[in-house]
Amino acid sequence: MENKLIILLVIILGAIAVAQLVRIYELSSKLRKNEEHEISNRDNNLNARMMFGFMLLFFAGFIYLMTAYGWTGRGSAASVEGIEMDWLLNLNFVIIIAVFFLTNFLLFYFTWRFVRKPGVPAFYYPHNNKLEMLWTVVPAIVLAVIIILGLQTWSNLSGPSKPEAEKIELFSKQFDWTARYAGADNTLGLYDYKLTLDNNELALLTTSTIDSSLNNMLNGPTGIRSLQKLLNNRDTVYSDSTMQVLRTDLSRKERLYRFLTQMKENHNPKLDASAWDDIIQKDTLYLCKGQEYEIALRAKDVIHSAYFPHFRAQMNTVPGMATRMKFTPNKTTSEMRDEKNDANFNYILMCNKICGGAHYKMKMVVVVLDRPAYKKWMDGKKKATFKDQYFPVAAAPAATSADTTAVDTMN
Amino acid sequence: MASHDAHAHGHHEDHHHHEEHFISKYIFSQDHKMIGKQFLMTAVFMGLVAMMLSILFRIQLAWPGESSDFLSFFLGEKWAPNGVLKEDMYLGLVTIHGTIMVFFLLTGGLSGTFSNILIPLQLGARDMASGFLNMLSYWMFALSSLIMVVTLFVESGPAMSGWTVYPPLSALPQAVSGSGLGMTLWLVSMTIFIASSLIGSLNYIVTIINLRTQGMNMTRMPLTIWAFFVTAILGVLSFPVLLSAALLLTMDRLMGTSFYLSDIIVGGEMLTNHGGSPILYQHLFWFLGHPEVYIVLLPALGLSSEIIATNARKPIFGYKAMIGSILAIGFLSFIVWGHHMFVTGMNPFLGSVFVFTTLLIAIPSAVKVFNYLTTLWKGSLVLTPAMLFAIGLVSTFITGGVTGIILADSALDIMMHDTYFVVAHFHIVMGMSAVFGMFGGVYHWFPKMFGRMMNTRLGYAHFWVTLIGAYGVFFPMHFVGLAGAPRRYYDYSAYSEFDSNSFELMVDLNQIITIFAIIAALGQVFFLFNFFYSIFRGPKAPQNPWRSTTLEWTTPVEAIHGNWPGELPTVHRWPYDYSKPGASEDFISQITPLEEGEEEH
After folding, report:
1. Which among B247, B182, B187, B163 has a CA at the least distance from the CA of B488?
2. Is the previous residue joined to B141 through a cis bond, with omega within 30 degrees of 0?
3. What does the domain layout of chain A look like in residue ranges?
4. Contact between B186 and B154 (Cβ < 8 Å)
5. Helix, strand, or coil here: B333?
6. Stretch A324-330: mean pLDDT, rounded?
7. Torsion angle in degrees (nearest 10) through CA of B4, B8, B10, B14
8. Is A129 helix (H, G, I), strand (E, B) or coil?
9. pLDDT above 50 (res B11)
10. In the predicted model, what is the mean pLDDT of residues A285-310?
């Protein structure tokens, strides 16, 4: 409380102090008969010099920031695509930095050079078609180069991946990431959000998951039957609002139940296999150096964005819509650690689309292994497929031991 | 009421010729000059609020998790327990800061103020086409401003999904607390704001087309008017689309429709919405959102054209090319919105089209910059505070504009999207430029608005602190962005776990940025004091203090209803006859007839 009082006092006293200073200044300037609209040569020249001085300061600041912080933050690109993008980025930077220096220099130089001098009139120069044509055409040519190079890279980056690309799905929700490897068949199993249950967080589509969702919707603790029972219970009297909530909930669940029934009727059991062999991976995403990845993206609740700063890759995950991206890591984590001279460095997957309070914490560590280590890790995971997790009898311990092996290999 | 009456009576005795009531003169005024001043006052207030919000979240970014008395003083125990900002409120502050700055300061404030004051005065009209609609436009703006400020005090917090309020985050109160009542009020406020903006814009367009005085051809209009004209057209064509986006969002929130929602599980609840697309909202939003950038920027460029020509004592170089580039920018601004959506999952081919159209905008922008430079070349510059701000605007327009080339390139946007590089880019090119244009406009036309002069020295102090402070804030942000820092992050502690070098860089730069932000914010005290003090105590202004050619400086110093006491002036020449060879003075007013044998220009 005391501190608040002090802050308030400081604000008030500050305002009063400024007011008094200006009052004094005003009075003294009245004595000097200063006309506000007549800018004296002294003021004019002072400001002109300051403008030029500011330019020097500005340029020096830019050069300092560029040398001190220019590329240190993100480091060199760690994917094949990233190298191409960095090349393009550097080229663009050369062009725009040249323009930045040239035009800012002319601006501040002219301000300093052509400040009013007594007896020197301004030069009446309303237009010059040749000059105007020049600075329409030259930027147009430079931009044409930028556009052509940019679109070439864009079509490489956004085009389809090669058939041998390994498929991974990244599933996003408030506020974490889950990865799903496509397993031995390199085909991701289908999904439907209505199948989400505690033991099927990624809502994968198989005959068993449909059955268990149907069962849960009907007989679960907050399922249709228990809601009906609550509503039909003559011993309890609910308030209107509670009744309303229960009824809305019931009709929502009945609708979902109908959808699930339809799903069951249309389901082709042959598709189950592609889901059962998928491997679900939390906490850490393991990737293989030199392997192209085709990443499918999915969101459970709101829009997120899968952002890999080191691979120079980003794509939003959108509820109700499938999005994709691809990239090929080309440096293992330990190679990057050596390069950055930082033993604790890790690649990262971050969320880069505002998604709620803990948005800034939503991340997943990414580890790039060389091919033998990756294969070893993947072999360990073969016994921790979705099927093994869904029917947990034998396979549970395998996952943890596989993780430790992989980390060991890497270190 | 009683006090108003008393005041009005006192007024009566002083001026027997004047019958205006206090309420009709100062509150429900239909005079364009008073309405312009009302817009300006409201905008100054809203700008202060938004600036304060930014200081609050900048403190968190520079010293994350440290207890701050300043934060607890303004936010209290609820939103800053023990002086540490809450995560949710951080997002709330960011959202409302952005909304107020973009819409209420730089759209309502900039365009509302100067379109209202300058359009009739520079065209030689007695008032706007419809004084009543003009008044309605202001009062709707005031109401929407009030509601937007009130959202800060809602118990569940203000809107928290960023100023773009993308659904599903903004549609689902389960996803973030601000998407409850705070978001509803945000939508109400914006709806009223859009209505205000539409009424205002239609009025500006009609006035410019119909109420030009004799001799005022379209090609004799000052560039300010051209800029306001194109701005108003952009507003009329794009704001209704934002309204539709907001209405559909309201229906999704309140009536169970699925325009933007599909296959969502939030807070453990499985929603049945299916078939909607959040991308639809983004298309609708950015169909306004991109023209909006030019709605903000064009008036500032128009004002600075006028200020630079006047104070360089030279005609603006390439008047027709300037008009052409305003029109080109206006047209192109409608076909570039997709560059905000390169990584949303939009079809990559569509992305390429938007790359092409977006980069085309650089051409008219370059033309404008080079024309400004040539206008300064061999001028006789008078560095009034307004002129300094106008030159500052050209600098920020360049500095912020060139980074746009990188962001417009979809291949490069993949890694820059939603990082601080973007924040730096648009704050410099749109924020700083428009604010500089607005300050320049206030310093330049203050004598016209209030019949008094502002203090020049304080103006200089204000300019220098603002220029250095604002560049000090937004220039280092490029490097935070290049390091990969995502925007709208409450803190960057995540980096400390995987890349300590980047983390240190971000902490260092964020502290520098916040210190500059505080300096720049304090620098605004020079302006506020100068502004309010000069309204009442500034020295009386001469009729044409800047020796300018345009019509507004032929009106009497004491503003009157109807602007010109006798007949409306007749225009004989373009507005940029400065330092014309053979003329006796270094400016020739637009109302001076051509001399025999004199060519127009």
Report:
1. B163
2. no
3. 39-79+103-121, 183-274, 278-410
4. no
5. helix
6. 95
7. 150
8. helix
9. no
10. 95
Spatial contact of B362 and A96, defined as CB atoms under 8 Å apart: no
Which of B276, B403, B410 has the CB atom closest to A154's CB atom? B410
Instruction: Please report where in the chains the tokens 């607390």 appear, as a residue.
Output: B177
Taking the whole predicted model, whether its pTM rises above 0.90 is answered as: yes
* A107 contacts B391? CB cut-off 8 A: yes
> Mutate which of B381, B465, B600 to test chain A, going by most A C-beta atoms within 10 A?
B381
Token pair of A9, please? 């006092």
DSSP A79: B
Average pLDDT over residues B342-367: 93
Distance between CA atoms of residues B77 and B69, nearest Å: 11
Q: Which of B95, B97, B102, B96 is nearest to B162 (CA)?
A: B95
Q: Is the ipTM of this complex over 0.90?
A: yes
Residue of A nearest to B541 (CA): A37
Give the closest of A97, A107, A342 to B395, CB-based.
A107
> What CA–CA distance (Å, rounded) separates A399 from B7?
83
Q: How far is B279 from chain A (nearest CA, A)?
A: 8
| Domains in chain B: boundaries | 28-218, 540-601
Please write the tens of the pLDDT for every residue from A381-410: 888 899 988 987 654 444 444 444 444 444
Q: How far apart are CA B473 and CA B428, in angstroms?
A: 10
**Which residue do the tokens 């560590």 mark?**
A365
Q: Which residues contact B44 (CB under 8 A, 6 or more apart)?
A: B109, B528, B531
pLDDT (tens digit, 9 = 90+) per residue, B548-583? Answer: 999 999 999 888 888 999 899 999 999 999 999 888
Average pLDDT over residues B425-446: 96
Number of C-beta neighbours around residue A63 at 10 A: 12
Pairing outcome for strands A279-281 and A313-317: unpaired
Give residue-wise pLDDT tens across range A41-65.
899 999 999 999 999 999 999 999 9
Superfamily covering domain B28-218: Cytochrome c oxidase-like, subunit I domain (1.20.210.10)
Which residue is it, tokens 């449909």?
Answer: A210
Across the interface, whether the CB atoms of A72 and B483 are under 8 A apart is answered yes
B350: which 2 tokens? 């569509």
B123 three-state secondary structure: helix
- Determine the average pLDDT of the residues in B501-523: 93
High-pLDDT (> 90) share of chain B, %? 83
Fold of A278-410: Immunoglobulin-like (2.60.40)
Question: Where would I find the H helices in A284-366?
Answer: 333-340
**Which of A109, A246, A360 to mutate to probe the B interface, most B CBs <10 Å?**
A360
CA distance A335 to chain B (A): 14
Q: In angstroms, rounded to a whole number, what is the distance separating the alpha carbons of residues A24 and A32?
A: 13
Query: Do residues A103 and B397 touch, judged by C-beta distance below 8 A?
Result: no
Q: Kindly report whether the peptide bond that precedes residue B168 is cis, defined as omega within 30 degrees of 0.
A: yes
Taking the C-alpha atoms of residue B374 and residue B316, their distance in angstroms, rounded to an integer, is 8
Contact criterion met (CB below 8 Å) for B200 and B128: no
DSSP per-residue string spanning B243-302? HHHHHHHHHHHHS---SS--S-EETTEE----S--HHHHHHHHHHHHHHHHHHHHHHHHH
Q: How far apart are CA A402 and CA A383, in angstroms?
A: 9
Query: Are A307 and A314 within 8 A, CB to CB?
Result: yes
Residue A383 makes CB contacts below 8 A (sequence gap 6+) with A395, A398, A399, A402
Cβ atoms within 10 Å, residue A230: 16
Give me the mean pLDDT over the A103-131 stretch.
Answer: 93
> Alpha-carbon distance A73 to B23, whole Å?
59
CB pairs under 8 A between A and B: 414
